[in-house]
Amino acid sequence: MLCRAIAAAGRQVTDGGSRDQGGGVAGHWLFAALAVFGVASNLLMLAGPLFMLVVYDIVLPAGSTETLVVLLLMLAAAQAVQSLVDLSRSRMLARMGAMLRQDEIAPAAFAGAAGAAQSGATVQAFLGSAAALAVLDLPFLPVMLGVLFLFHPLMGALAIGGMAVLAAIGGVERHLARGPRRRLDLAAASAAEELARAGPAAEYLAATGQGGAAARRWRRHDTAAMIAHLRLGDTTAACAVASRGVRVFLQSATIALGAGLAIRGELTGGAMVAGSLLMSRILGPFEQGMTAVPQALRVWRMHRAARRRAAATPPAPPLPGPARVAAEGLAVTMGEGARPVLSGIEFAVGPGQILLILGRSGAGKTMLLRVIAGLLPASAGRVTVGGGNSVPHREGPSAVLGYLPTHPAFCAGTVAEAIAGDAHAPGGGEPMRTAARQAARAAGVEMALLSLPQGFETSVPEAETRLSKGQLHRMALARALAGRPDILLLDDPDIAHDPEGFAILAAALRSARARGASVIVTARQAQLLPLADLVLLIEGGRMQAFGPVGQVMAGLSRRASAVGTAAPASAPRGEVA
Ligand SMILES: Nc1ncnc2c1ncn2[C@@H]1O[C@H](COP(=O)(O)OP(=O)(O)OP(=O)(O)O)[C@@H](O)[C@H]1O
Questions:
Q1: Is residue 365 in contact with ligand 1, taking CB distance under 6 Å?
Q2: Vertex 158 angle, CA 156 and 161, to 5°
Q3: How many other CB atoms are found less than 10 A from the CB of residue 336?
Q4: Rounded to the nearest whole angstrom, what is the distance from the C-alpha of residue 176 to the centroid of ligand 1?
Q5: Among 334, 345, 367, 491, which is best to mutate for testing ligand 1, by the most ligand atoms less than 8 A from CB?
Q6: Cβ–ligand 1 contact at 362 (below 6 Å)
Q7: Fold adopted by 410-484
Q8: Contact 524 CB / ligand 1 (< 6 Å)
Q9: What is the spatial distance between Cα 455 and Cα 415, in angstroms, rounded to a whole number?
Q10: Does the CB atom of residue 359 touch ligand 1 within 6 A?
């Protein structure tokens, strides 16, 4: 049974885990084997006390050396079997941990993989530890306790009293450690954040000489963490010493109690010694179990939360129709009771149309693009991406979507993979490299990328140190264009800010429109207006106007001349007023 369980679990782990077939079978075998082996291990635990009982009460009075040798051999065999059984239980639990870890990580989207990997690693580490075995052994404690009661009720009562004292010490420890543990977590997190920020800010810190202030702040947090760590250590050490003292004393107290009962003829000498051994086999696992159970509950809650997160992110459905993006009564609120950062947004962009979203800094342009890209949920209304409209908020896979975020960043890999790896996954290879070259050409960055040490095969981290900010931005535009996406979302493409870049962007937008893509671009300035078919004006998160460019501009001009001022966004290259 053990071999089948471990082999099935091992197969599942190495195969990448098909939970429906091999995974489920392996899980059932493991549970069954764990239960059987748990019973066996705990029954074998009684071999030692039984040996004492027989030696003191039968072998010594009979004076039989042969019986003593046979009993000793039987005890050695029992303990060898118990060691094997416990080793097998540890191995089964470790494999169960690996299966659960795989369960958590497999469904996680790559973007959320860090959280899943962390919780998966915690689950695996717990199940591979002695604490997990201690939890599994807890249900067998009443059996041991029952045997002690059989020896004599007073011995059982002493064990229960000892367990109550150990539980009280555990409770005091939890109470005293709560404060230092909270302070330690806070200070350690602040120190880690200070260090994490020092990396990206290294140039600023060096140039302005503020490394001293940052270092002082980090040292303050680190010192607070160190002090809290010391206090926590003092508390746990004191409680551990007290627990150990109680356990050792109780073992001697059992002997004393047994001796007293033996003097009164209520207990045999063998039961006295066996009872003392049994007492240590009860109190040790009980003490371990007290710290292991809260740990197990924390790990279980973490695992359940990870499974819920995985279930809450189903794969995107296929694009149901032609490229089209529309919003109806869309609103976005960040946090409970907060003012909406977007409200009353309504628009529709068809295939082969370019929509320009214009607004001042902080108007809500990025928020709107993020909702369309499926990165932010709408709190009211809906956005449909593609031809369908049955799913509220958003539908459509991101694979057909080209996206240029405000602060583009790239995953590790080569430049070619960074640009076209997703558009051509899982194929990769030559088609991917060709697509990367074409997209880079369209974004005006091909020559810069070819001049890198290994051209398009240069690693992204190296390219990032060798390319200018503008070139990296163009590389991000190339990534958005790669694979000729049906829907193209460009957030404030700063390539538009110089004449050469403007011409490149204009050509890329016209080409996307010509092949029937729906294009949405955000900007603070109006110089992209001549390229657009539609314009959406936002102010303070609210839609001011939407429609064909000529119509919206004419409306603005009429409104402006009615109040005797110039039209705000009508100046082709002026900032939106
Ligand atoms: N996480 C957040 N929580 C609460 N409010 C936010 C959050 N992120 C952004 N905002 C607010 O939402 C509003 C719109 O922000 P958004 O980034 O969409 O502006 P924008 O029009 O793109 O500006 P810019 O042109 O400067 O990039 C801003 O007032 C901003 O302060």
A1: yes
A2: 110
A3: 5
A4: 44
A5: 367
A6: yes
A7: Rossmann fold (3.40.50)
A8: yes
A9: 8
A10: yes
Any atom of ligand 1 within 6 Å of the Cβ of 334: yes
DSSP annotation of 564: T
Pairing of strands 518-523, 353-359: parallel
User: 183: which 2 tokens?
Assistant: 């302070």
Closest CA to 112 of 295, 263, 307: 307
Choose among 553, 573, 549: nearest CA to 561.
553
**Is 324-406+491-577 assigned to CATH 3.40.50.300?**
yes
Over range 343-369, report the average pLDDT.
92
Residue whose pair of structure tokens reads 């390319």 in the numeric block:
467
The residue type found at 442 is A
Q: What gap in Å lies between CA 369 and CA 373, rounded to an integer?
A: 6
* CB of residue 27 inside a 6 A radius of ligand 1: no
Report angle CA 246, 248, 252 to the nearest 5 degrees: 110
Pocket perturbation via mutation, ligand 1, pick of 341, 342, 361, 489 by most ligand atoms within 8 A of CB: 341
358 lines ligand 1 (CB under 6 A): no
Does residue 113 have a pLDDT over 50? yes
Mean pLDDT of the chain: 83
Which residues of the chain does CATH 3.40.50.300 include?
A: 324-406+491-577, 410-484
**Per-residue model confidence as pLDDT tens digits over 288-335:** 888 888 889 988 888 888 777 766 655 444 444 565 888 889 999 887
Alpha-carbon distance 339 to 345, whole Å? 15
Which residues, 6+ apart, have CB-to-CB distance to 120 below 8 Å? 100, 101, 102, 103, 104, 105, 306
Length of the chain: 577
402 alpha carbon, distance to own chain's centre: 26
Task: Give the range among 6-10, 95-99, 473-477, 565-569 with minimum mean pLDDT.
Answer: 565-569
Please report the pLDDT score of residue 204 as a whole number: 75
- In 3D, which of 430, 427, 431, 417 has the Cα closest to residue 479? 417
The closest residue, in CA terms, to atom 5 on ligand 1 is 334
Number of neighbouring beta carbons within 10 Å of residue 317: 13
Rounded to the nearest angstrom, the distance between the alpha carbon of 363 and the centre of ligand 1 is 7
Q: Which amino acid is at 368?
A: L
The lowest-confidence range among 3-7, 80-84, 335-339, 404-408 is 3-7
Q: How far is CA 225 from the centre of its chain?
A: 24
